[in-house]
Specification:
heterotrimer, B: 139 residues, alpha+beta, OB fold (Dihydrolipoamide Acetyltransferase, E2P), 2 domains, five-stranded mixed β-barrel, 7 strands, 28% helix, 35% strand, elongated, C: 668 residues, six-stranded antiparallel sheet, four-stranded antiparallel sheet, 11 strands, globular
Amino acid sequence: MDTIVILIITALVALYIALPFFLRKKDYINKTVESLRSINEVDRLTSLNNQKETLYSAIRDIDFDYGLGKLSKDDYEELNNKYRDEAASVLKEIDEYQKLEEQSGSLTPDQKLEQEISSYRKISTSSKSDDVLLEEEISAFRSANQASLTSDKCSKCGAECNAEDMFCSKCGAELNK
Amino acid sequence: MLKGKLKFIIAIAIIALTVGYLVYGGVKDTMVYYLTVQELRAQVPTVYDSRVRVSGTVVPGTIVKDNKGSLEFQITDGAETIDVQYEGIIPDIFADDVEAVVEGVYAKNDVFEADTLLAKCPTKYESTDSLYENKETSY
Amino acid sequence: MVETGSISIFLAFVISIYVLAASVYGVKTRKWDFVRSAENGAIAVFFLLLIATIALVHSLINLDFSLKYVALNTSTDLATIYRFTSLWAGQAGSLLLWCLVLSIYTAIVVLQSRNRDRELMPYVLATLATVSIFFIGVITFVESPFEKLPFTPLEGRGLNPILQNAYMAIHPITLYFGYVGVTVPFAFGMGALLSGKLGDAWIRYSRKWALFAWTFLSVGLLLGARWAYLELGWGGYWAWDPVENAAFMPWLAATAFIHSVMIQEKKGMLKKWNMSLIIITFFLSIFGTFITRSGIISSVHSFAQSDIGPLFLAFIAFILLFSFAMFLYRMKDLETENRFDSILSRESAFIFNNLLFLGAAFAVFLGTIFPILSEALTGDKILVGPPYFNRVNVPIALVLILLMGVGPLISWRKASLKNLARNFLSPVLLGILTVIILLALGMRDVVALISFALCAFVTGTVFTEFFRGTRVRMKRGENFLSAFLRLVSRNKRRYGGYIVHIGVVLIVIGVTASSVFVTEKQATLNKGESMELRNYSLRFDGIEQYTTDAKNATIAHLTLFEGGKEVDTIAPEKNIYKYEGNREINQETEVALRSTFKDDLYIILSGFNPDGTVTIRAMINPLVNWIWAGGIVLLLGAIVTMWPSGKKRSEQAFVRYTVREQDATLNA
């Protein structure tokens, strides 16, 4: 009994491991990556997208921290500008990759998929310039947080205060809400 | 910027030194020598009243328990034997012939006053010897 | 079945070598079909080890005593569930389980990232395969679970009765998932070093896996502590035993890693530090396995020991040399992108947190290996006991708790004094208030006072965070509940982390109270006599003895009075197992525990005498239940943190976009 089971297991395992080599005749894997673009480019694009996500969440974070009064106004503006600059350059690079693809044209032989991909491109890049796109994307989520960021003036001493605060941070007077 | 960096280095150095000091002081104040019975007996005049840990096998038949939970027994390493007195929780596996580890003070009357008693399983290795007792006869 | 099992292990060994070779060859020469084949190999290894494990479980449950492992760890009177759990009661079975868990993780890594990070993944796979080769090699050639005895005994040696406990059944396996889980982030780190892809990919994967492993380690440690508390019968849950330290050290390093990794993600700093940390964490986890298994350091816990020590030592040396050599080789690519702006910032709070965790890990490590070290250096074997560990770790822990409160409220980059005063006023007041109340209640222990004050402070800061965050959202017109839920779900990592911190606070409160304020008393009682303990009184009502197939049990019946009123009956036991001889332990003290959130009444029957008296040791351990409750909160927080988020539209679209393109050519 055992011998038969062992033989079957061994055969199955060998077959499974050797499978990619048989399929090689169709030459599918090598073609996949090499013909599309180098894998470095795929990695780079993945990494850019991750950087974008990280920067967005960093901007969301400082927005929120500013709303909570954990960041001073100066620091907030400085950080915000810095992150937005970085986000701009990342988005620009992503766009360059995607433009490159459009130019090279005959990427995917399959018509249906071609359509699907180009429809995605329409949503994401359309015909707008980089800066417009960035502005749109960044302002979209910033507007969500805007409510908390408006600043009030203290009625007593005139200092700028966060709308969040109950008391003026300069003179301590109660803020009217 | 240099000033900021310096502050960091100072702060890190303080942490490192504090940890180092805690480790050093901890080792210095809490260390105990781990001796065999023979080694303990060899250091007899100097070892009195200092805290040591001794390991040895419990001599069969020497365990005396009294009602109040205190315990007397002897441990040996084959060469020498000492009397041990102990009060506290007795480990479940403590019995004749197990390897016992006691920590405490060797008093001048040559009785080891232990406040910690650990017992180790008699088999250090997964021994198959005991299985031979149950050897199937029909085999 | 047995043949199938042992051949499966052998096949798994051979295929692991193939996986290592094929993945490295494939990525070096860009022959991706080799990488594919290696990936399939990794999945095949999982199935083979699964077959082997099933075969061993089958033998254990059917008590096939012709196998050494079965004969050593089971017996005919063992309940089926414990026949199954004896899979990890002995050396060979544990190692098989180690391999199986590693192969599960490897298969998940392969399946998750088949089409991503093609330069990085083959090296990750190669690292995982290398670790597999070592462990599978050990169970193939040195400690085979399928080793046969030259004869078939009628009866096995049986499972140690103190291992026959529900906690013992799940605690080792939980720890294993943690221990082995550490291998995966390490493999990503090594993959990054080997491939030179030192971007953010490895750190993202590593963070998730490290968090996963950390959660298992934490829960495993707590389950182990609970087991020791219930079963070992000395009234405590942690004794700084080498085996406990073995699991505690990688936990400390992993905790440092999951914090500092955030800095690298957000700021591109601390790259070298993180890389070293993950190497150290992995080293400590293997070292932990080594000291548990080799018996090089004497411990009351190490159940199964053997002479695989030198093998492990060689493997550890190889890992350390190889990984730090790679680290030096890539050093210049690990330059930091940013620098620290101010000492009063969240970044520096993280740095200090890391230094302290590492300092604690170092102190524990030193204390654990001190006997070996001192013997090698001076010839004398010198031990450092629990007082050493407490003295070093308590101050470090207190500062860490302080940082746990400071960290969340301090701002990134630079905190101003104004900001500090504003954010910290109420938590600090809460801390001071706690001290005043406790002083008024008569507490005079300085360490306990500091600890409780810090716990109140941390709780204050965490609640401030939740409260203010919720209020900001409520300003936008959400009601309290939805504002709160959205707050958490929108930033699961941050708020999940806070929940974990609350869990830690509960644990700290429990540990402080139960280690500082223990009341202990021992008395020998005649029937009808009572012993007093604080406001409790215990009356001894008599002894009951009975016999079952397995044991002779003696039960002392006691009635508990609290403030003069009868509240409960209590029955500690002492069992003597009939089937002696081959077992390591034939006597077992069954603790009677009356557990409330206020305190635990921990009662041990330490002896019974022919004259009808019993010796009872009773302890009041305050707030022990807070530790276990804290563990549950910690687990919940960790789950929140790891809960997968609904992928953002853009990311999803991107993934589909690239994957589709690849599929398109696949199908062409």
